[in-house]
Amino acid sequence: MKTDCVIIGGGPAGLTASIYLSRYMVKNIIIAKDMGMASETPEIENYPGFTKISGTELVQKMTEQAKHFGGEIIYDEVEKIEKADEGFRIKTHNTEYDAKTVILAMGTHKRKLNVPGEEKYTGKGVSYCATCDGAFFQKTKVGVAGGANSAMTTALLLRKFDDEVHMFIHSKLKGDDILKDRIMKDDKIIKYYNVEIEEVYGEQMLTGVKIKDRKTGEVKNVEINGLFVEIGLIPNTGLVKGMVELDEKGLIKVNSKMETTIPGMFAAGDITTGSNHLEQVITAAAEGAIAADSVHKYLSSQE
Predict the structure, then answer these.
(1) Which of 71, 109, 213, 277 could bridge across to 18 with cysteines, CB 3.0–4.6 Å?
(2) Catalytic residues
(3) Domains along the chain?
(4) Is the dihedral of CA 166, 172, 175, 177 positive or negative?
(5) First-residue to last-residue Cα distance in the chain
(6) E strands present in the chain
(7) pTM of the model
(8) Distance between CA 139 and CA 164 in Å, rounded?
(9) Each residue of 82-133: pLDDT tens digit?
(10) Within the chain, how many helices (H) and strands (E) appear?
């Protein structure tokens, strides 16, 4: 199948790129495994136009808009990208696509604790998505690993279901002051500062975590029935490692036009070095729009 542009990734960056490309009358196809990390965000309060909206709903609206303007969305997984005579060849599980240009918008995935018991109890109390699994832990005690915006948002969501939420914070709360204020005012959210989780344990299901005070070295057990891990993100750039230039964190290096080090290949969203690493839906969307504009100009220059 031939097209002007293949967009890899179905989150805000990829969807916005599709919307803009379609309005430029540039034929485009989105290939995505899923709806991206943004769809797992319980509540978004800082995207213009919506006082409050779930990540799933927002991404669904973007998906509908991309389809409305003519973007084609295929849920599949890209296995390989190769340079071709007239652009790029993109190979998936099911087929191959020839594209004059590519926009990389693969997003990120959750960082794991990498401690004993984490893998064993994943799906048995350990979760990386409060939107997906939070409702399963009603009227019990749960924990959140992390202290930034995603962790605070998760803790506030879980408080709707649970009697107690224990936050295990590596140093201090970091992020939006409005979220910090809500966390600090809720006495059912129990905060542990300067700690790290050393072990996840249980029987058939998770029953607790072992934490260590980073200053004193004191170790203690905290009984919880669920643990939601929110300690950061890792860019999904393995597909293009060795192909485009990455920084020390594995992010794709881009310029202000969202150009990578390969002509005709662009990148947008949380996988890039752009937008001051803000990692927000609005910056992902902005980068998607810029990448689409750059694709349009690049294709026009090739005519």
Answers:
(1) 71
(2) 129, 132-133
(3) 2-108+234-302 (3.50.50.60), 112-229 (3.50.50.60)
(4) positive
(5) 21
(6) 2-8, 28-32, 72-75, 78-84, 87-92, 96-104, 108-110, 126-127, 141-145, 164-168, 189-192, 195-202, 206-213, 219-223, 226-229, 233-235, 265-267
(7) 0.92
(8) 8
(9) 999 889 999 998 899 999 999 999 999 999 999 999 999 999 999 999 888 8
(10) 7, 17
